[in-house]
Design brief:
Strand order of the largest sheet: 1-9-6-11-4-3-2
Largest sheet: 7 strands, antiparallel
Number of strands: 13
CATH architecture: Sandwich
Strand content: 25-35%
Number of helices: 2
Oligomer: single chain
Helix content: 10-25%
CATH topology: Jelly Rolls
Distance between the termini: 51 Å
C-alpha cells in the first residue's frame, strides 16, 4: 500500500538578528503604560498597530521573507506587503485563545523576549475529520494529531497562512513574553485581464 501526503500546510520558521535599536525599541515601548491596550485575560498589545513603521530594517526583511514564501508556493506574484503590526505583552499567567487573522494573506509572529516556560505556540490542523469517529488514538502520527506546538526562542519568526488557527499556552515563566505580530495583503496588480480575474490594489 502506498500512502501519499496530500495538501501540506506551509510554515516558515526563520532565525532573525535584530539590530540593537530595534530590540531596545520593542522592549522600551512596552515599558510605558500608556502605550499598552488591555485585552481579555490581562493580555496587552501596543496602542500603535503599525509598529513596524518604527522598525524599517526589520519590516523590509519581513516583506522580503514573505515574498520568498509566496514565490515558493506560486511562482511570480505581485508584491505582498505588511498591513498592520503590533507588539504583544503577556505577563505571567496569561495565554492567547485559539484564533485566526481576518483580512490577511500571510500572518507572522516574532519573539523578542521568551523562554521555555512563557508558552508554546500551537498551530491547529484545518481538517480533523479522520479522528471524528474515534474516542481514543493509540498511534499518534502526522495524520491524526490535532495541533503542532513550538517552543519559541528569541529571534524566531513564524510565517503561516492567516486562516490557520493558532493559540499560545499559558505563560508559566517569571518573565513576560514579548512578541510582535503582523498581517499582510497583496498590493499592485495581479490576476489576468484576459481571464477576467485582474485586480489592482493601491
Amino acid at each position: 500500500m502506498q500512502v501519499i501526503d496530500l495538501f501540506p500546510m506551509p510554515l516558515v520558521v526563520e532565525e532573525l538578528n535584530f539590530t540593537q535599536s530595534e530590540f531596545d525599541f520593542a522592549i522600551n515601548y512596552l515599558s510605558v503604560e500608556s502605550n499598552l491596550h488591555e485585552n481579555k485575560n490581562n493580555n496587552f498589545n501596543s496602542v500603535d498597530t503599525y509598529i513596524l513603521n518604527h522598525m524599517p530594517i526589520l519590516k523590509s526583511h519581513i516583506e522580503a521573507s514573505i515574498t520568498s514564501y509566496m514565490h515558493n508556493l506560486f511562482g511570480e506574484i505581485s508584491k505582498i506587503q505588511v498591513t498592520q503590526s503590533w507588539l504583544n505583552y503577556n505577563p505571567t499567567g496569561t495565554s492567547h485563545h485559539k484564533h485566526s487573522h481576518s483580512n490577511s494573506v500571510i500572518s507572522g509572529v516574532i519573539y523578542f523576549q521568551t523562554d521555555e516556560n512563557t508558552g508554546n505556540l500551537n498551530l491547529y490542523r484545518p481538517d480533523n475529520q479522520l479522528r471524528q469517529l474515534y474516542d481514543e488514538v493509540t498511534n499518534w502520527n502526522v495524520y491524526n494529531y490535532e495541533f503542532v506546538y513550538f517552543a519559541p526562542k528569541v529571534g524566531n519568526m513564524f510565517l503561516f497562512p492567516s486562516t490557520l488557527l493558532h493559540s499560545v499556552e499559558e505563560n508559566k515563566s517569571t518573565i513576560s513574553r514579548i512578541s510582535l505580530s503582523f498581517n499582510t495583503f497583496y498590493s499592485g496588480t495581479f490576476g489576468s485581464d484576459i481571464k477576467l480575474t485582474q485586480v489592482t490594489l493601491r
